[in-house]
Amino acid sequence: MPITVVAENISQCASENIPPISLYMTATNIYGITLVSIGSLAVVTVLVIFLDTLKYIMKNSSSRVKAHSAFITGVYPVISVATFFVILVPRAHLLAEALTQGMFMFGMYQLWCLFVSYCGGEAELVQKLKPGTLTLKVGPCCCWPCCFCLPTLNVEKKTLHYLRILVLQLPIVQGFVYMILLVMWAERESLYQVNYMYLQPIIIVSILMGIWGMLMTINILKNVLEDEFKLTQKFLVLQLVLICAKLQGLITRALVWTDVLPCKPPITPTVYGNLIHNTLMIVEMVLLSFVANKLYKRELPQNRLKEIKTVGTSMDFHNKLKITTGQINKGADLSDLI
Asked: The whole model's pTM is what?
């Protein structure tokens, strides 16, 4: 009988079985309750920070950047909530991973649109940059010595379209890949586990191309926008979401593959790895949302200029109105005023 039990335990630990929520909660007992409490506090903190940021954006930002800024700052609470649900329901890990990936990719495209909106749109950006040039020798794709022969392009509307496509392919390609993975997982979990690594090269190439497009865009915008716009910092804070998700996910998977994590059925090494990864993710979302709050609650130079221009125009109109009213009171001819 003991031999049978040992063999059964070894079989459970060797597989990547994830227990249902009832067994999971029973097995984690007090540790699970503590983890859920900490996760709840972290999610509430991220939501409060997001609402504070959103309130400032809606009140102080110009109309052309409000939607982009709101979506980007909304990446952190969505990922936090998705991560928290994975802590509660371990079998939802792939769904949360797909949602995290999707929110990041859409957020990256919205960030590109935000940067262009800071300049007033594509047409005005081209006018401001004339005669500007775009160098292709930018990381992570074209920073090698063998890329010295790449040409330098003139900044035209067609060039901006190419940059837009490089970033826009992120949500399209990533969404398609994760749809395939979810279909495999729904059909048979082992089918998903076998093919997961084969689809990773597509995901990696797509991410590298998107980041390449973003870095080229930031390089050309540095010549137009002031330092107060914090382009690099805003890009880095969003990119850290991907780094945390992918790098930590790879590390925890490696710990599972190398049998470093313990196995206490029904809590398998995969469950331990997911718990470590998701706990770190939810803490990191608190920190990143706080940094994003500081970045997006800054008065932009364009807002100050717009305010000054509006005040000046209103004062001019008020002075003209006073002069005109005074002339009318003195009996001046209306045709002279016109």
From this structure: 0.79
